[in-house]
Amino acid sequence: MKTPVYSLLPLLLSLSHLVTSVTIDCQNIRVDGKKFDLSKLAGRHSVTVHDTSRPPAEYNTTWTINLCAPLKKLEGIRDQDQCPGGTRVCGVVQSWNPADDPDKKHVQVENVIPIAGNFESSTGAGLDPKVTRLKTQDSNSDGLQIELNGGNYNKMKQKAVVQLTCDKDRSGNEEKRKRDDQDPDQDKDKDKDKEEQPSTSSLTFVSYGPVEGKDKIEVLRLDWRTKYACEDYADSDEARRSGWGFFTWFILLAFLGIAAYLIFGSWLNYNRYGARGWDLLPHGDTIRDIPYLFKDWSRKVIDTVSGGGSRGGYSAV
Description:
Blueprint: H1 9-20, E1 29-31, E2 34-36, E3 45-51, E4 58-65, E5 87-96, E6 108-117, E7 130-133, E8 143-148, E9 152-153, E10 156-166, E11 203-210, E12 217-226, H2 237-242, H3 246-273, H4 284-306
Parallel strand pairs: 10-12
Antiparallel strand pairs: 1-2, 3-4, 4-5, 5-6, 7-8, 8-10, 9-10, 11-12
C-alpha cells in the first residue's frame, strides 16, 4: 500500500527544521582535522562605528555579536529597539543632532538590523554556519573565518563574515581602553604592577554593504584578533592548564556519586527505621570497620614484603 503524500508532510517539516537549526559549538570546532575552542569568546561583544557624513545629524552604528549563543535582550530598552530573539549578530543605528543635543540626551534609534541568527519561527531562515581555516585562503594567515546567516533587512538577505585572526598576545576579550580625562593620574600606582592591556579593541569593524552577485545580500565583515584562533593553541601548555583532565572529572564524579549515595541512604534509614548516629549510614558496620580492615591489610603487606610469608603464617620459636 502506498503511503499518502500528506502523511509525509510532518516528517518533511521536522527534517527542514533540523536543517535550519544547525548551530555552532564553540567548545568543539573541528576544521580539516584541527580542533579549536572558542568558548572563552562567548558573551556579548560590540564595536561602534561613528558616521558624520550626513549632517546635521551624526550616527553611531553598534555591531554586537555572540558567537556561542543568541543575544539576550537588554533591560530598559524597548523590544523594537533591539534585534529579535535568536539573533547572534545585530546592528543598531542611533542618531542625534550635536547642534541641538550636544549631551546626547535625545538619541533616537533609526534602524535595527538582524544580521545573523536562527529565525525558524519567523522567517524560516537558520544560522547555517560555515567555518574555514584562513590557511586555505592565504598560506601566510593563521586563524578561522566564520560565516553566519539567517538575517533579513529591507528585503535583502544578511550575512556576517567574522575573520578570527591568530594573535598570541590577545585573548579576544579586550575592549578599547577608556582614559580618565578628569584625573589621568588617578590610581596610577595601583595599576603599575598590572599587565598593560592593548589600547585598541580586539574586535574591529571592517565593512558593511551589498555584494555583487545574483542574490541580493548585504555582508557585515568583522575582524577579531585572539589567541584562541591559533592552530597550535590547543596543544599549548596554557590550553592544557585551562582544561580539566579525565582523572579530575573521574574523581569529582566519584565523590559526588558517593556523597549522593550516603545522603540518600541516611535519609532512607532515618525515615524507615528511625536510625541515629552510625546506624544512619548505609553499610555503617562496614564503614566503621574500615580502619581495622586497613590496619590488617597493611600488616599483611608488611609481613609479605619483609619475608614473613615464607613460614606459612608460623613464627619461629
